[in-house]
Design brief:
- The structure holds 2 protein chains of 2 kinds.
- Chain A has one domain: YVTN repeat-like/Quinoprotein amine dehydrogenase (Methylamine Dehydrogenase, Chain H), CATH 2.130.10.10.
- Helices cover 6% and strands 53% of the residues of chain A.
- Chain A is built from 1 helix and 29 strands.
- Chain B has a single domain, classed as 2-Layer Sandwich (Alpha-D-Glucose-1,6-Bisphosphate, Chain A, domain 4), CATH 3.30.530.
- The termini of chain B are far apart.
- Classes of the chains: A mainly beta, B alpha+beta.
Chain lengths: 320, 176
């Protein structure tokens, strides 16, 4: 009987680890040269990891083993080990690495260079650059499709978006966006591409079938980043200069609500497990947790100085 | 004739430097917070600073203002009265705060780009007020590896000096 109970207990421990293992959010703190790691079960910062200088962009592999950070000031990519939560390597790269994204199979890491006007493709196993592709002027945000066949990058000072084929590394198309596009985000079904334009304070929506611009949606001042809910029925946009987020009804392609969220909202991710939106407020140095259904703020988590959290910053917790 | 060409060349060069595209910037935004406690009621403090077009009445570094209520040009006296064009981004009388941005500036005199600033008055429990001035901006140099006069430190220095001079004089004026 005693043995049975112990076995049951061990089984329970194992089971709970597998089924209830939580996730982490990795927030780049640009003014304190670090990454704050938030436990998304307790909403507590469990670690602050030193990285390169002035970190901005972030990408987390699906298995959580590797986290990549772009450091435009020290011109390198920091690699964080997901088990140890330590910066295990810094890869020198270009003149000002900024936007960063992984292909959905986690095989390739794409990094845009703010000064070099190109995107570097790295093999995530060898951490070596396998290709450099020239794109438009001052490239920033990047997103990749579900088929691992294309990536999209916003060329901020060319007012355009480059569509690049990952298989043959060819720039297939240049889309005319609004003024100063910064972030590009595909809808979860990949049917639409949303582009946040900082200067014209709107979002351009492209059909990914024929790349026609089907709508321009007015949002708040200086939109920075976009996140969709899981179903893709809503998109949330951070408006840096208005201290708000815009909520877009993606079915009707309409801005349906504007919410006060804190000062200089920037990076934004949708957390599918809890249906919460995580918003990084640069000036307030905090992450706001917003319930996506009733749009109430649930929590504010203090992180390092000047957080940007530009990219997909959520991944599984591997820390034992 | 050669002299004329040279002069023309320098004029063009100068124009290129001074009329920088204020919407381009480097990858790292800077943050400044300056505050001061003033022995006066918040309403009294707000009364002095609330008029966007009259910053020259309390800021010692502004020699003159031209304003239409939405946009203003301030003349910055520490740098030879260089004009700085600003826009009123938002205004909240109830919360006693407003936000401005710079729309045009000679970066040799005020080396910042994509600048916004928020000034607010708050009541303290002891009856005094705190004025908080917050700035968010990029360095003026948009390319990589900036010269020292256009780097982050230069931008931080310019904004800090501007905020401190204004706040110190506001305190002096109200506590007189």
């Amino acid at each position: 009987m005693k043995n049975f109970l112990i076995n049951l207990w061990i089984f329970f421990l194992f089971f709970s680890k597998v089924c209830f293992s939580n996730d982490l959010a990795y927030i780049t703190n640009q003014l304190s040269n670090s990454v704050s790691v938030i436990d998304l079960e307790t909403y507590k910062v469990i670690k602050e990891i030193s990285v390169g200088l002035k970190p901005a962009g972030i990408a987390v592999t699906k298995n959580g083993k590797k986290i990549f950070v772009s450091n435009p000031e020290s011109k390198e990519i920091s690699v964080i080990d997901g088990y140890k939560l330590e910066n295990i390597k810094n890869i020198p790269l270009g003149k000002g690495p900024l936007g960063i994204a992984l292909t959905k199979d986690d095989k390739f890491l794409l990094v845009s260079d703010w000064y070099d006007h190109k995107v570097s493709i790295l093999n995530t196993n060898t951490l070596k650059v396998i290709k450099e592709i020239s794109v438009g002027k001052t490239p920033a945000g990047i997103d990749t499709d579900l088929k691992n066949s294309k990536f999209y990058v916003a060329n901020r000072d060319d007012h355009s978006v480059s569509v690049v084929n990952i298989k043959n590394f060819k720039e297939e198309k240049i889309l005319k966006a609004g003024e100063r596009p910064f972030a590009v985000t595909l809808s979860p079904d990949n049917k639409f591409l949303y582009v946040a334009n900082v200067k014209s304070s709107d979002v351009s929506v492209f059909n990914t079938k024929d790349y026609k611009k089907i709508k321009t949606i007015k949002v708040g001042k200086s939109p920075y980043a976009i996140a969709f809910n899981q179903e893709g029925t809503q998109a949330f946009v951070t408006n840096q200069h208005e201290n708000t987020i815009s909520v877009i009804d993606t079915v009707n392609k309409k801005n349906i609500k504007t919410l006060d969220i804190g000062e200089y909202p920037e990076g934004i991710n949708f957390y599918r497990k809890t249906k919460e939106v995580l918003i990084v407020n640069w000036f307030d140095s905090e992450v706001v947790v917003l319930n996506s259904e009733n749009l109430n703020i649930k929590k504010k988590i203090t992180v390092g100085e000047g957080p940007r959290g530009f990219g997909n910053f959520i991944g599984p917790n591997l820390v034992k | 004739m050669k002299l004329l060409t040279n002069i023309l060349f320098f004029i063009i060069l100068f124009l290129n430097i001074s009329t920088k595209d204020v919407f381009s910037h480097g990858p790292t935004r800077q943050k400044i917070k300056e505050s001061i406690t003033i022995n006066a009621k918040p309403e009294e403090v707000w009364n002095v600073i609330k008029d966007f077009g009259k910053i020259n009445t309390w800021h010692p570094s502004v020699s003159k203002v031209e304003s239409d209520g939405k946009n203003r040009t301030i003349y910055y006296s520490p740098r030879n009265n260089t004009p700085i064009k600003q826009k009123l981004e938002s205004y909240n009388a109830e919360k006693m705060m407003y936000k401005t941005s710079i729309t045009e500036v000679d970066i040799k005199s005020f080396p910042v780009s994509t600048y916004t600033a928020n000034i607010s008055v708050k009541a303290n429990d002891d009856g005094t007020s705190t004025v908080l001035w917050k700035g968010a901006f990029y360095r003026a140099y948009v390319n990589n590896d900036p010269p020292p006069e256009l780097n982050e430190a230069a931008a931080i220095k310019a904004v800090t000096e501007f905020f401190q001079a204004g706040l110190n004089n506001l305190k002096k004026k109200l506590e007189k």
